[in-house]
Amino acid sequence: MELNFFTSKGEVGGNQILLQHDEERIWLDFGLSFKKAARYINPILEGRQLPKMHLDELAKMQVTPPSQYYEAGMRILVSHAHVDHYGALLAPLEHDIKVEIYAPEDTLRLLKARMEISNAGSLLEKAELVQLQPYTKKSVSDYEIVPIPVDHSIDASYSYLMFLPDGQSLYYSGDYRFDLISAEKTLETIRKFTEKPDVVISELTGVASRNPLKEQDMRPAMSKVAQKYNGFATIFSTPSYTRRMEAIRHTFKDRTLVVDSSYAYLLYVANKSKLINGVFVSEKKRVFTKWERELEKSFTFVGESELRQKQNNYAIVLNPYHKLKLDFDFTPNSFSILSLTEPFDEEGFIHSSRLEAFLLQHRRIPIYHIHASGHAEAFDIARFIEELKPSKVFLIHSQSPETIHGLLPKMRNLNTPDYGESVA
Questions:
Q1: pLDDT tens by residue, 258-316
Q2: Which residues touch 59 (CB under 8 Å, ≥6 apart)?
Q3: Residue 81 pLDDT exceeds 80
């Protein structure tokens, strides 16, 4: 087994890990590093696209690996449809490199929808999409792969248990937490296939200061706030996560709930359309995309004039990375809920601060942060790894991966690889 890491130490996201055995290669995610890509990409959530650049230019900036690692074709396991786990796929697809993407059907469906929203859907048509079944072994070249569902801040999130021809096994966590799927449940699933994996590659995002709320706390926390106000309610929330949308729907069950069009399409694809009453579309918009036209069949479109006249009757869920199109004064006793992932870098902190300043100073409304992290705490990850008893551990997707050493002082073979590092 040889592992090549193309994700930088101390960086959250941009997962690109190449597993090799003999001549067979398979990638564990192929994500876009926001920190590296921010040099030339406008930082918006939907539509983070790599411009068509020469592969050697992208490699020089460490946005993608050197092309010799994938120009002959690539197989990719996608853990979930967050851009930092799939966004670099645009590079090989733009350059007509053969790409096979492996994931369960719900992940592939969500990946396709998010790429359609970012105007990259036609690129994905160049790839071969291969469905995997959760909890079921599938042979992919020389590997046997088992997708294991994990709890994260997006639907259709999976970890992967992998078996090599030489008998070795590897567990790749993707991004995970233990709010709704416990560590015990995941351990139980892994042990149905192996007593212990030889190698574990785990994220370790949750080492920074964090909100103690769990996903189970979202409904009561939101409802407690909403009961105080009868004005206009604006919610900025995580897309592609229906569990959070269910909490919002419950909180505002007595109001008409409308959402940003991109969010509506993701709910539509996930067969969760009943959670909302309508789709917000700017009245200045003249041209609709193909996927927006598809929404017209199932939803009522709502514009600014309707919201302005009946603010007390509405709650609206918006994309925090899109320009706010509500160009009217909010009625007294209005408020906003920010239910967003914690910022992991300077760019995220600046954007979050600007959004808060806009709402406080220009809309003159109070703001409530009500969010549960999509990542497990470092302590819980340490206990999980301790129970797995692997021979080697690689910690990635973390600003401070060394933190794990203080939580697992007796465990040897804890590794924090840097960009370009190869481990046999």
A1: 999 999 999 999 999 999 999 999 888 878 999 999 998 889 999 999 999 999 999 99
A2: 65, 66, 67
A3: yes
pLDDT of 49 strictly over 70: no
Instruction: Quote the pLDDT of residue 50.
Output: 60
pTM equals 0.93
What CA–CA distances, in Å, run from 94 to 49, 121, 213? 11, 12, 41
What is the rounded average pLDDT for all residues in the chain?
90
Beta bridge partners of 162: 145, 170
Instruction: For residue 138, give both structure tokens.
Output: 């599938």
Q: Which residue has the higher pLDDT, 337 or 34?
A: 337
How do strand 335-339 and strand 314-318 relate by DSSP bridges?
unpaired
Residues 315 and 318: their CA atoms lie apart, in Å, by 10
Q: Residue 170: what residue type?
A: L
For residue 37 the two structure tokens come to: 């890509």
Tokens 């909490």 found at: 247
Integer Cα distance of 367 and 334 in angstroms: 10
**Position 166: which residue type?**
D
Neighbour-count burial for 80-108, b at 16+ CB within 10 Å, e otherwise: bbbbbbbbbbbbbbbeebebbbbbbebbb
Reduced to 3 states (helix: H, G, I; strand: E, B; else coil), residue 110 is helix
Each residue's pLDDT tens digit, 171-202: 999 999 999 999 999 999 999 999 999 999 99
Give the C-alpha separation, 31 to 374, whole Å: 17
Mind listing the domains of the chain with CATH numbers? 2-208+375-423 (3.60.15.10), 215-369 (3.40.50.10710)
**Rounded distance between C-alpha atoms, residue 233 and residue 226, angstroms:** 8
**Residue 133: its H or E element:** none
Exposed / middle / buried, residue 402 (Cβ in 10 Å: 0-12, 13-18, 19+): middle
